[in-house]
Amino acid sequence: MNRRRQLVLATGLLPLAHSRAGRGQPSQQMRRIGYLSLNTNGNEVDAQSRSLLQESLRRRGWVEGKNLQIEWRYAAGHYDRLDGLAKELVDLKVELIVAALNAPTAAARRATTSIPIVMIGAVLPVERGYVSSLAHPAGNVTGTSAPGADTAAKSIQILREVAPTLTRLALLTNPSSSERPRRLQSAPHSIDELDRAAHNSVVDAIGRTAGALGMTSETFEAQTSEDITSRLQRIGASRAQMMWVAYDGVFQSRLRDIASFATEHKILSIGIATAFTTVGGALYYGSSLAEILDRSVSFVDRILRGATPGDLPVEEPTNFDLIINMKTMRSIGIAVPRTVLVRATELIE
Questions:
Q1: Segment (H or E) for 96
Q2: What are phi and psi for residue 144, nearest 5 degrees?
Q3: pLDDT per position as a tens digit, 107-154
Q4: Are residue 101 and residue 222 in the same domain, yes or no?
Q5: Same-domain status, 135 and 165
Q6: Distance of CA 106 to the CA centre of its chain
Q7: Same domain, 198 and 293
Q8: Model confidence pLDDT, tens digit, residues 262-299
Q9: pTM check: above 0.85
Q10: 99 with 168, same domain?
Q11: Structural domains in the chain (count)
């Protein structure tokens, strides 16, 4: 059973609901939108996100099956399926496409320059050419962006607070998580270079923080779902004591496997996908999934009511969660200090 502290949601989502008070209800005419994800349909990560997204739509008067039809499309970790799925949505003449993370956003942009696209948690959307600027997106894309390297560095500080005697850290990352298998031609720079630069900025920030805290770090790169198994084996052989898991579309489909591996090997793990702790990972630190999805849905709502995506500024995360899976912590034999417990927004028992 989850024990959730209410401060984040009370101060974040409820004012959003109140700000909509008095706004007219949507028409009962059936509207159609698309949802594009690199994830696998129905797994724990998808189920959590889908439930929050549907609830946020309902709060705004959009009920799937009543006045809203959602065309759900999943690539199951295969980048090469995204373009075809995006084209399907365009051929269905959806009114907008919700794109989860970078690769689906890029695929949607390749498929259409006219149908509105709402990003969820895109990384470096300006640098990758999705939008002209955060304040003035122009074009047909808007939505929410992801936190940067500073948040990743903060997660390493949390690992140190939780287990001050552990020193060997493994990073499980994907350096090419956004645009494979081909680059977006309209972007101002090579997408491969941007992917590598974004990846390196996070790895470097983690490395500097880990070094300052007396820890060593080693990076293990996995670009496909199939890569993950061998990388985990290497992490085990490296005798890592801690593991940081990137937020990535490929990793989403294998989060339970990654979390189980860490627990089995008594490795203290922290992920930056909220569902990581839901599937057994020890820790999560990052932007509030509820807030990111709620803010993303606010773009869907405004566009369905007639707003132009290019006029809606991209929003960055403002609320951050620290989630601790207490059952996993007990399993790996680590007692969480009270100074960390009191800062947690959720404890999973």
A1: none
A2: -120, 150
A3: 999 999 999 999 999 888 888 889 999 999 999 999 999 887 888 899
A4: no
A5: no
A6: 15
A7: no
A8: 999 999 999 988 889 999 999 999 988 889 999 999 99
A9: no
A10: no
A11: 2
Pairing between strand 2-4 and 346-348?
antiparallel
What are the beta bridge partners of residue 325?
348
Closest CA to 285 of 300, 301, 274, 294: 274
Boundaries of domain holding 209: 149-286+321-348
Instruction: With respect to residue 107, please indicate whether it lies within any of the assigned structural domains.
Output: yes
Residue 2 covered by a domain: no
What's the Cα-to-Cα distance from 117 to each of 100, 150, 169, 215, rounded to whole Å? Answer: 10, 27, 38, 41
Number of other CB atoms surrounding residue 162 within 10 Å: 22
Q: Is 273 helix (H, G, I), strand (E, B) or coil?
A: coil
Residue range 45-54: mean pLDDT, rounded: 90
For the segment 227-268, what is each residue's pLDDT rounded down to a tens digit? 999 999 999 999 999 999 987 777 877 899 999 999 999 999
* Domain identity same for 196 and 334: yes
Adjacent-strand bridge partners of 346: 4, 323
User: Same structural domain for residues 241 and 190?
Assistant: yes
The predicted structure's pLDDT at residue 190: 43
Tracing tokens 């890029």 back to the chain, one arrives at 106
- Quick one: tokens of 82? 């995204």
Residues 165 and 62 in one domain: no
CATH of the domain at 300: 3.40.50.2300
Helix (H, G, I), strand (E, B) or coil at 49: helix
